Amino acid sequence: MNLILQIGLILTSVLLVLLVLLHRAKGGGLSSLFGGGMQSSLSGSSVAEKNLDRITIVVIAVWVICIIGTGLLIKIG
């Protein structure tokens, strides 16, 4: 069980990094420092962005479950 949770944690961590990098920058922050602030936002968010948000939230939930499960297994054993 511990091995499954650790593999899930690694996979979701990598996937989470990729999903966060796919998001379009919405604020000033560091993205504008590297030229991201020059883009004009069109008419709000598209369907693809909404789906990307949903997928990211699901991956975050699985990531948190893997972390909690791994922590519980370490505490028990």
TrEMBL record:
Localization per Swiss-Prot or TrEMBL: Cell membrane; Membrane
Keyword match Transmembrane: yes
Pfam family, one: SecG
Keywords: Cell membrane, Membrane, Protein transport, Translocation, Transmembrane, Transmembrane helix, Transport
First-listed, main subcellular location of the protein, grouped into a coarse class: membrane
Membrane topology: Multi-pass membrane protein
Taxonomic superkingdom: Bacteria
Transmembrane segments: 55-74
Function: Involved in protein export. Participates in an early event of protein translocation.
Protein family according to the UniProt entry: Belongs to the SecG family.
Full protein name: Protein-export membrane protein SecG
Protein source organism: Saccharopolyspora gregorii
Gene: secG_2
